[in-house]
């Protein structure tokens, strides 16, 4: 079996295997969008002689982690033809992808797993609890607001309004741990994936945008694709805007971060909610990741011992001192926090604090070492809504 980066001339092979292995074939603007991302991304193919039998695509993206922007490899469109499954092809594609991401400076990777257990074995871990909700529109409860400050538009009539949407998203993404940064390519992707989406933007008295929603109305459902508010006033105005659709909408469908206790402040917060854990994270290059990591003020030197069976360059001991990280030969065990790459990845992005990992036997350290790491790592829960 030969594993290599695929060329633009092999685009049709990439499309064929995607269409065969997933539920439906891409057509129209969705297919055009996929072709665009094939050009931008790195696709690793597994070949049996001249025949493509498996593939894995790495999308070049960025993510905000505790205020630090990292280059990220978004893993998607992972596929193997059925006759080559359970033969080690997928394992080799993943190993090659880790090497490729490291070479490209993508220090962290995120994917949506078909199986959490499968990708956990290779070092990825769940890191965000997303709350999906089906909200009867009559249960929306906010103080009635004057909606004169709302601007509504769609892709056929955008003018400069889309610039306000992008500015609001960027402000929110830069202050929210775990949010994916959206460049022009990603905004183009959203348009091609949901060309019938509509927007509503909230303006303050000075005419500045403070929030927006991107949404679809299908049958009797109001489907929220984005809900971004920079303050509570903008949030309430957006909910009021949604509520006034009650004559032609019965249910509002959307997502929120589970840790934000969505709807709990309303008069009747009992409606259908479901926690989904469908995104996983992995540090690709520990030394580079730690070197950029925004630790809190360090009171003492920290030592970290990492185990990583599929990215051997990460294995070893790291010394973190004065915001500088260096890899060292060894250190006495009692001075180190010991974690495998799986748990370390979700810990450093903020999924749980260090005491949770220690309780779960996923972190080995003395009480003194645990206390040092508890102070050093920012306590911000991540949010991630990107879909590959």
TrEMBL record:
SUPFAM superfamilies: Acyl-CoA N-acyltransferases (Nat), SCP-like. GO terms for molecular function: aminoglycoside N-acetyltransferase activity. Keywords: Transferase. It comes from the Bacteria. Coiled coil: none annotated. One of its GO terms (biological process) is aminoglycoside antibiotic catabolic process. Residues 1-143 form the N-acetyltransferase domain. Pfam families: Acetyltransf_17 (PF17668), Acetyltransf_9 (PF13527), SCP2_2 (PF13530). This is Predicted acetyltransferase. It comes from Pisciglobus halotolerans.
């Amino acid at each position: 079996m030969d594993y290599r980066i695929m060329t633009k001339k092999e685009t049709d092979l990439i499309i064929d295997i995607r269409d065969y292995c997933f539920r439906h074939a891409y057509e129209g603007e969705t297919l055009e969008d996929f072709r665009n991302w094939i050009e931008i991304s790195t696709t690793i193919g597994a070949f049996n002689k001249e025949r493509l039998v498996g593939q894995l695509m790495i999308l070049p993206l960025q993510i905000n982690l505790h205020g630090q922007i990292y280059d990220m490899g978004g893993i998607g469109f992972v596929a193997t033809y059925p006759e080559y499954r359970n033969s080690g092809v997928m394992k080799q594609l993943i190993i090659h992808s880790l090497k490729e991401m490291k070479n490209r400076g993508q220090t962290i990777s995120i994917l949506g797993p078909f199986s959490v257990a499968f990708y956990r074995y290779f070092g990825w871990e769940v890191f965000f609890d997303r709350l999906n909700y089906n909200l009867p529109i009559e249960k929306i409860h906010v103080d009635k607001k004057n909606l004169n400050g709302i601007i509504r538009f769609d892709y056929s009539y955008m003018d400069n309004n889309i610039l306000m949407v992008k500015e609001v998203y960027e402000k929110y993404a830069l202050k929210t741990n775990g949010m994916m940064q959206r460049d022009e390519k990603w905004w183009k992707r959203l348009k091609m994936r949901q060309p019938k989406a509509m927007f509503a933007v909230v303006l303050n008295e000075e005419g500045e945008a403070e929030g927006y929603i991107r949404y679809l109305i299908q049958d009797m459902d109001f489907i929220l694709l984005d809900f971004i508010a920079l303050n509570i006033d903008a949030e309430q105005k957006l909910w009021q805007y949604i509520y006034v659709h009650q004559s032609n909408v019965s249910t509002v469908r959307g997502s929120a971060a589970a840790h934000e206790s969505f709807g709990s402040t309303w008069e009747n917060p009992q409606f259908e909610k479901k926690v989904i854990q469908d995104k996983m994270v992995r540090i690709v290059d520990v030394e580079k990741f730690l070197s950029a990591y925004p630790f809190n003020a360090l009171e003492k030197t920290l030592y970290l011992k990492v185990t990583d069976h599929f990215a051997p360059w990460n294995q070893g001991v790291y010394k973190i001192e004065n915001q500088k990280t260096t890899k060292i030969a060894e250190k006495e065990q009692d001075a180190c926090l010991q974690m495998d790459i799986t748990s370390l990845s979700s810990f450093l992005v903020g999924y749980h604090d260090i005491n949770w990992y220690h309780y779960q036997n996923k972190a080995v350290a003395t009480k003194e070492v645990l206390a040092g790491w508890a102070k050093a790592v920012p306590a911000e829960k991540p949010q991630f809504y990107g879909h590959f």
